[in-house]
Fold these 3 entries.
Entry 1:
Amino acid sequence: MLKADLHCHSTISDGLLAPAQVAALAHAAGVELWALTDHDEVDGVAAARAAARRLGMGFVAGVEISVTWANHTVHIVGLQIDETDTALCNGLIKTRSGRDQRGREIGAQLAAAGIPGAYEGALKYVANPALLSRTHFARFLIEAGVATSVAEVFKRYLAEGKPGYVPHRWATLAEALGWIRAAGGVAVLAHPGRYPLDPVAEAALFDEFISLGGRAVEVVTGSHTPDQYATYAALARRYGLLASRGADFHGPGESRVDFAGLPPLPADLVPVWHDW
Ligand code: AMP
Ligand code: MN
Ligand code: MN
Ligand code: MN
């Protein structure tokens, strides 16, 4: 099976490396078909495509859109998009707006919890001012000594219900799928194992995603545990969805797995890239 990795991040969102550096790491790990999927941003796609071309690696233009569904944050990856599409770009601008204000509120809440200067501290880690993310806060909080890993800092400060968590309204599921489809792309439900949904709510998410034209689900991803690979392989079969694979790489030492550490998709699933 082709070695495809279709989910990762650069400094254009909350990754640690520039698009060309991420391309080089993916290529060095043997990736043959690669997508950059920054959060709510396609500004890195041109540089990523050029780097992949220089390396002789297959390239897929991508994005990861933040969605609010049933009061939960859900991520939808768009693949094979035309990153210049006006509807998509305007939708992403709208989705990004509000990140700075949310960041100021996160800073205020952390200050109230005894950690001053987090907004300014997080901004030091931001390359793209339109994309202040909780990951940037996590890096600052580690620097400030309140935690030693990104996972720990989310658990204690940044996850839903914790002192630095500010609820936010992202795009709707219908908007995200509409923008991806307008841009000629394929919509992929990202890392479903990460959402705190009971089986009934999870089934409702899959049903709605499919009814809106969603075609694929991430099965093997750095954001799933190995147990969840099997769980979501079973759901891909049950719903007749194509399967996707990607490390969700953010940077060396920061992600659970890198491009080399991710197993292949179960052989009976139809990969999202089967007809590309
Ligand atoms: P944001 O879009 O600003 O709310 O940030 C979401 C990003 O935070 C995700 O894309 C991940 O990179 C990171 N993230 C969310 N939850 C966790 C977690 N539990 N552990 C590590 N990183 C996380
Ligand atoms: Mn991220
Ligand atoms: Mn995600
Ligand atoms: Mn991601």
Note: The chain has two domains: 4-96+169-261, 99-156.
Entry 2:
Amino acid sequence: MPTAPQDTDQDPDRVALFDTTLRDGEQSPGISLNVAEKLEIAHQLARLGVDVIEAGFPATSPGDFEAVQAIAREVEGPIVAGLARTYTADIDFAADAVRDAERPRIHTFISTSDIHITHQLRISRDDVKGQARAAVAHARSLVDDVEFSPMDATRADLEFTAEVVQIAIDEGATTVNIPDTVGYTMPHEFDAYLRRLYELAPGLREVTLSVHCHDDLGLAVANSFAGVLAGARQVECAVNGIGERAGNAALEEIIMLLHTRGDAVGLDTGAVTTEISRTSRLVSRLTGYPVQPNKAIVGRNAFAHESGIHQDGVLKERSTYEIMDATTVGLEANQIVLGKHSGRHALRQALEELGYPVDGAVLQQAFKRFKEIADKKKQVTAMDLEALVTDELREDVPAYALEWFDVEASSRRPPHATVSITTPAGRSVEGSFTGDGPVDAIFRAINAATGVEARLREFRVDAVTGGQDALGEVSVVLELDGRTSAGQAVATDILEAAARAHVRALSLAVRRAQTAVPEPDVVATP
Ligand code: KIV
Ligand code: ZN
């Protein structure tokens, strides 16, 4: 049972959710969200009821700073945190970025493992202690809520880590987060580690203990849960489990684990579980990272029964093979909301009910797309609308845009495509190509039109809903100058969705190539 030594303000049976989708999650290869997209995700995280949004790492780029600041200013409810190394300048950037939040937090970190101290930081253990002390003290002089993380803690000397943790607490850290940075620990080891840490750093009982686990060995959620049982009351996680390398603990799994089995341990989160599916779909669309079909909680098959024996059992009594109800995670979003004859007002109202209060040019454009879809689909579901509006909200200026495409395909000769693209400068350019297949021909015609030789790394088609007339959703990952960029788009015609997804990924690739800044040479991002 949890020992629950805690921050006095926090309900001891409540596990706080610290969402790092926009920081650790955004560090996944190929993901690069713009400010509008980050805001959209942050608003949805607030609807989901997370306690903390780690909105970014403000010192790393002006774009990150701007996004953290926008989230701090606009998103109500959760604490908004900005990440900072122990450098004064990093902490100042983070403080400036979160300043306008209802409840701002600075999250500062430094490694305590000898592997990192010797090979990456190239300083001494005493320097680490000094930097941690100064950083937390400085952060506390700027905000009341400071989180400290000893990076790579699970591979570090426990006694030394405890010393650093106690220093951080003495300087006023209000949350201490123990990261399993490289996903190396095992649940029983993590449990023993944290229990010993409580003994060696007695101040830990006065603050909130947090855990941050990576999934390199597929143990991120199991380790986070072990951490909770050892007394942690904050779990750091990301939607769909995205994050560095194999990712972070999946937010939806943590929520549903405690929702479904929380009784056994007397714990729960404050999440609105019915917002889970929608949050997952939004993050998948905006990041271009598809969710694997068998992914727990949010995978397409997570609530599907294939074998005859299972189907038979569920038809007789759901509990034979179901431990959760799909509606609990918001999977009923497939009801029909609009038809072919619905007008702009009905669309606006339906979108508002879905949590997308759109107006002006976005509503205009969404209505145009809705009419095109409704003509072909007749009945438009909530999931279709959500896909459509996310697609619209995503347009980034200045960027390339698809005007039209033309493709001739036949089984008797190689397909040929011609495309017309608007460049960021507003010019129309055309390109043609004869490819191996219609999609290949379109993609290469786009490259020819733009003069950008992006290489296709991944291509995937999904259906937004079931049925023959379902919207097609295409995900594309391109490589340009050694960097990957993802794009996604939806349309009733998958060739159109493919063309738009490609143009989107290409726009992102070009933008990233133009704004690329050298990696900091002191500490790589965690
Ligand atoms: O994985 C890690 O160690 C991190 C820290 C910044 C918490 O992301
Ligand atoms: Zn991490």
Note: The first helix runs from residue 35 to 48.
Entry 3:
Amino acid sequence: MNTKFKERLLIMASLTVILGNSPLLSEAQDTSGIYHEEYRPQVHFSPKAHWVNDPNGMVYFKGTYHLFFQDYPKGTTWGPMHWGHAISKDLMHWKELPIALYPDSLGYIFSGSAVIDSNNTSGFGKNGKIPLVAIFTHHDPQLEKAGKENYQNESLAYSLDDGYTWTKYAGNPVLKNPGLRDFRDPKVMWYVKGKKWIMTLATKDHITFYSSPDLKNWKKESEFGKDLGAHGGVWECPDLFPLKLNEKTYWVLIVNLNPGGPNGGSATQYFIGDFDGTTFSPNDGKTRWLDYGTDEYAGVTWNNTGNRRIFLGWMSNWQYANQVPTKGWRNAMTIPRELTLFKEKDGLYVRSLPVKEINAIELKKPQDHRPELPKALPGQYLIKLKTKRLADYSIILSNSANEKLIIGFDKVKDQYFIDRTKSGRTDFSGNFPSIAYAPRLSDVNNSEMLLLVDRSSVELFADDGRTVMTSIVFPAKPYNHIDLKLVKIIQLIPLYGIW
Ligand code: FRU
């Protein structure tokens, strides 16, 4: 037996011990109660009940991360949209609060963003209270039904209690539709150099930038992207923000797209370039994808997080989001990810890695088990692997129901892949049983790869986050067995459930 093979066997043997015999990861799961239902993510945000799609209004204020989300509180499929609300101190543990915004006579509350209006430019502030302002799309279903074009308009709501309760502005809408069927998902930021607000808006097959001194009066600045990037579907949920690399500032423009993603359906593309307060100029014409998997969509970043840029996506795909086989609630968010820039031979790219706060839910040793947290359930863990460039390697996650999820690298194609064809339930949509592929963007040898497994999802951060893939799965039992081919595990870290 050659030594390499022996080494692999040893690793495999020890893994079986870790996953199979540990009382912390035993198959006896607590199936009672909310957040412990079949397929329920244990380290990702999912709503207590009912339907969720896009993350909205993400803003950090006074030590609290606010997460609003597209919410239909009366059912488990998409319906009249509200803004649900959750808060967190550490991006890991979430507390769901009452619904923040309800539909009204102007329509459903579609996606949008929230800002801290520190200078009270809007005038919403009273008695020295800093207003938080939400900018969202009002979608009027009646106008839509009547065949009109102008059923999406941009509106405001404000909060004078640090983001907990919200009042809609009496002068809504603040930005009227010019006659475009797709005119939505405003992401607003304060543009420091020009001392003005910039709104990045998805307008069908391009982005339109608007500016405002007070969030109420908006002026068109420019358009971007009609002839650039991927156009297999409608442009939605954009984001614009600066990122530094070696002291130089670049601007990243995120544009979500549905359908037309690299593995079908919804996905997040981005551009890197410069923004001068009026125009976005990309460095090149290349299409870049933030996540090549099938299940990250509508991802945007938190406002007001200083030098950190923290991204969150919806962990599903419009191809089957309404059909996934969960009961009581439907869909979840990705793990929050920190974005940074990296350079390759052919230009700059964005790298994503889980935020460092994930370390706080690592269940390192049994004696670390904190009594105030629920006992860790099987099926949520982080795997750190060392990978070599020139090998066909794979990681096979499986369970006692003979279901398996294969994550690997194909050296001939120079591609990563996630094969979920035999991963568990796949029969609810013809689009679901698939093999997703992603190019390797990095040339680095012996890089580290991170896999985050959480009962019904896997997120692959290959080459230290240079290629990312997210995939949801519906195994009958959590995957508690791992087989490795030509790859070495550095660490396997069980995680505390957050609920
Ligand atoms: C993206 C999206 C947005 C829209 C929202 C409606 O998933 O279609 O463009 O605002 O969902 O729920």
Note: The first helix runs from residue 3 to 21.
